[in-house]
């Protein structure tokens, strides 16, 4: 299967008063078309930097980022992004918040087609009937659902999720995990998820990439076998327990708490 995203030998450092702060060091990641990769690692290891590089919002100091066979040199309209903070505009209705990217990114959709698509996405994530509400009238989980719709409105090839469920309570978070599988089935995309939640990574992703401590390298890659969309019960199987133990150990290695099993 062709890789839609390729991170090739990426190194990057930030300028600080104390000198360069290396955050990525020879990073290698490949995501096949239609795949869903979760990226985990210690805090501050460069996970969010990786999302900005994929989206073309930053350029690496060394190495290359490729999307669909083209080197990324700037922002890409084929990339959608959702963050931990939904950042919805209070003076706009939920429907108009979802439609906002189409006011920025050129679209072939007519005004009616765009509105129909927004309503379809809102219904898909369980927000039918809330189109005319303001963000303050919705719960945190509902605002995050609207943010997901906004990220998908322009039918991106790549969807980047930067800890989108991190601020939600456990029940809402698990509900949204199930919604994500439903959305991906109806709205195919190639996904990159940044998360600190190991359960979330194995529930949503086909593959989990563990980054080392800063400056980050690709330390370990865990494939998650999938025959069908999982249910929450699948998180309590012996297979899931083994996957979580592997990932917990790799995080300990990345944090420098143990050296055994490092790639």
Automatic annotation (TrEMBL):
<comment type="similarity">
    <text>Belongs to the ABC transporter superfamily.</text>
</comment>
<keyword id="KW-0547">Nucleotide-binding</keyword>
<dbReference type="InterPro" id="IPR003593">
    <property type="entry name" value="AAA+_ATPase"/>
</dbReference>
<dbReference type="InterPro" id="IPR027417">
    <property type="entry name" value="P-loop_NTPase"/>
</dbReference>
<dbReference type="InterPro" id="IPR050166">
    <property type="entry name" value="ABC_transporter_ATP-bind"/>
</dbReference>
<keyword id="KW-0813">Transport</keyword>
<feature type="domain" description="ABC transporter">
    <location>
        <begin position="5"/>
        <end position="238"/>
    </location>
</feature>
<dbReference type="GO" id="GO:0005524">
    <property type="term" value="F:ATP binding"/>
</dbReference>
<dbReference type="InterPro" id="IPR003439">
    <property type="entry name" value="ABC_transporter-like_ATP-bd"/>
</dbReference>
<keyword id="KW-0067">ATP-binding</keyword>
<dbReference type="Pfam" id="PF00005">
    <property type="entry name" value="ABC_tran"/>
</dbReference>
<protein>
    <submittedName>
        <fullName>ABC transporter ATP-binding protein</fullName>
    </submittedName>
</protein>
<dbReference type="InterPro" id="IPR017871">
    <property type="entry name" value="ABC_transporter-like_CS"/>
</dbReference>
């Amino acid at each position: 299967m062709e890789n839609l995203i390729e991170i090739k030998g990426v190194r990057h450092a930030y300028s600080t008063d104390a000198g360069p702060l290396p955050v990525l060091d020879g990073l290698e990641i490949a995501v096949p078309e239609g795949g869903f990769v979760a990226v985990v690692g210690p805090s501050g290891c460069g996970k969010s930097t990786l999302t900005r590089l994929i989206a073309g919002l930053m350029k690496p100091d060394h190495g290359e980022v490729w999307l669909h066979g083209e080197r990324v040199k700037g922002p890409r309209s084929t990339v959608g992004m959702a963050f931990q903070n939904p950042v919805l505009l209070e003076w706009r209705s939920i429907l108009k918040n979802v439609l906002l990217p189409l006011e920025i990114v050129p679209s072939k959709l007519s005004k009616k087609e765009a509105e129909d698509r927004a309503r379809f996405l809102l219904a898909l994530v369980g927000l039918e009937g809330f189109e005319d509400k303001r963000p303050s009238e919705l719960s945190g989980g509902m605002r995050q659902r609207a943010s997901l719709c906004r990220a998908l409105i322009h039918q991106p090839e790549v969807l980047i999720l930067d800890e989108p469920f991190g601020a939600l309570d456990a029940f809402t978070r698990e509900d949204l995990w199930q919604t994500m599988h439903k959305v991906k089935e109806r709205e195919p995309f190639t996904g990159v998820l940044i998360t600190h939640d190991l359960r979330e990574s194995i529930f949503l992703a086909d593959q989990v990439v563990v980054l080392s401590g800063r400056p980050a390298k690709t330390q370990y890659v865990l494939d998650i076998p999938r025959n069908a969309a999982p249910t929450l019960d699948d998180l309590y199987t012996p297979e899931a327990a083994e996957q979580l133990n592997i990932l917990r150990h790799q995080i300990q290695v990345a944090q420098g708490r143990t050296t055994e099993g490092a790639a």
